[in-house]
């Protein structure tokens, strides 16, 4: 019988992933990662719901303590990033280091199982011609989570099953009701687990970063207002600036050295290019020559045409066909060709 370890967060998606694989004949075991203490989808409340699902399905439930990994690679990573004036993307980092590798290691070394699965919306297909696993967008474009999976390795993709990638969220909810799962009516998580746990990103960061008053200035250096800490702001932000101005102003740069928040109008804030480091090429080998692709610079952004120019190992230059607003250091730039995710990396500070 095929065996698989399903990562269970306590939400409806991972619950349906487990029930669906079980209905397909897999021998399923559940695994929940203990990331941090406190309320939140990934933590104590989620573990209780995950245990309930395992009891309902009649499968074993395992809990793996990854709190130290989460503290080092997510909490410390976020804090140091915001202190440096960038806006880190924790979810892809968490998938790359904290979630998928420990899951596969535990499945193999402790349970003797060579397959893992999650409730992420994405698709994995094997390209025999190129001898490579390819990561594709989910069928449901409104729920596609391939953006957050861009940093997974070929080794992980070879042992990963994403059972929800070929169905819509509506179908997932219907399956949850069909299986009579205890999580069937549980609402979707709307925020990062850290925000759910602390109430807001501001409250989370204020626990670690001492607020330091500084100036809000325009591109010419004219002082327009004051702030209580640059870690409270992110590129593209418009609300909460507390500035009266003839046109809407947006945050376009954070300067940790001068402790300044730089703002500009939307027309002034566009960029035609950026440097992306820590590139991970997923569905294709690392290109030696420039290629054309579509880039997403935020999870919810629309893919935009871009020229991808290789610079050196794991670094590329993106030159957009049209200037883009909101290119944010620390966030991921993920490259697509249609439904196929080519690769992605972290936007550097300009």
Keywords, please?
350 residues; alpha/beta; Rossmann fold; SH3 type barrels; Elongation Factor Tu (Ef-tu), domain 3; 3 domains; 6-stranded antiparallel barrel
Give structural notes.
The protein is α/β, with parallel strands linked by helices. The protein has helices at residues 12-23, 44-57, 67-83, 90-109, 154-158, 169-178, 193-198, 201-206, and strands at residues 3-7, 27-34, 61-65, 116-117, 123-127, 132-136, 160-161, 214-217, 223-227, 250-255, 260-264, 270-281, 291-296, 304-312, 315-325, 332-337, 340-347. It has 3 domains: 3-198, Rossmann fold; 210-264, Roll (SH3 type barrels); 270-347, Translation factors (Elongation Factor Tu (Ef-tu), domain 3, Beta Barrel). The protein has 8 helices and 17 strands. A 6-stranded antiparallel β-barrel has the order 12-15-14-13-16-17. α1 (12-23) crosses α6 (169-178) and α3 packs antiparallel against α4 (90-109). It is globular. 40% of the residues are buried.
Task: Kindly summarize this structure in a few lines.
Helix content is 26%, strand content 30%. The chain is α/β, with parallel strands linked by helices. It folds into 3 domains: 3-198, 3-Layer(aba) Sandwich (Rossmann fold), CATH 3.40.50.620; 210-264, SH3 type barrels; 270-347, Elongation Factor Tu (Ef-tu), domain 3, CATH 2.40.30.10.
CATH superfamily of the largest domain: HUPs
Largest beta-sheet details:
6 strands, antiparallel, barrel
Indicate how many domains the architecture comprises. Answer: 3
Contiguous runs where pLDDT drops below 50 for at least 5 residues: none
């Amino acid at each position: 019988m095929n065996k698989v370890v399903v990562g269970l967060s306590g939400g409806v998606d991972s619950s349906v992933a487990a029930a669906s694989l079980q209905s397909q004949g897999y021998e399923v075991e559940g695994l929940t990662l203990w990331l941090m203490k406190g309320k939140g989808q990934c933590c104590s409340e989620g573990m209780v719901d995950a245990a309930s699902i395992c009891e309902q399905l009649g499968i074993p439930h395992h809990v793996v303590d990854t709190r130290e990994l989460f503290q080092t690679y997510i909490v410390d990573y976020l804090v140091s990033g915001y202190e440096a004036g960038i806006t880190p993307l924790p979810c892809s980092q968490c998938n790359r280091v904290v979630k998928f590798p420990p899951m596969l290691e535990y499945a193999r070394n402790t349970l003797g199982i060579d397959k893992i699965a999650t409730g992420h919306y994405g698709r994995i297909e094997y390209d025999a011609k190129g001898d490579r696993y390819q990561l594709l967008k989910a069928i449901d474009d409104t729920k596609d989570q391939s953006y957050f999976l861009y940093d997974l390795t070929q080794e992980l993709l070879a042992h990963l099953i994403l059972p929800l990638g070929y169905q819509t969220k509506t179908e997932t909810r219907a399956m949850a009701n069909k299986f009579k799962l205890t999580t069937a009516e549980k609402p979707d998580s709307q925020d990062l687990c850290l925000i759910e746990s602390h109430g807001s990103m501001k409250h989370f960061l204020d626990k670690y970063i001492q607020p330091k008053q500084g100036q809000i200035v325009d591109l010419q250096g004219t002082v327009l207002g004051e702030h209580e800490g640059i870690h409270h702001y992110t590129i593209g932000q418009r609300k909460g600036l507390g500035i009266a101005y003839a046109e809407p102003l947006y945050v376009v740069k954070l300067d940790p050295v001068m402790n300044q928040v730089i703002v500009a109008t939307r027309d002034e804030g566009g960029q035609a290019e950026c440097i992306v480091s820590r590139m991970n090429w997923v569905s294709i080998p690392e290109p030696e020559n420039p290629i054309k692709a579509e880039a997403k610079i935020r999870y919810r952004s629309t893919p935009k045409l871009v020229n991808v120019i290789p610079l050196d190992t794991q670094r590329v230059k993106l030159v957009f066909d049209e200037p883009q607003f909101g290119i944010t250091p620390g966030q991921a730039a993920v490259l697509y060709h249609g439904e196929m995710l080519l690769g992605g990396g972290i936007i550097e500070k300009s």
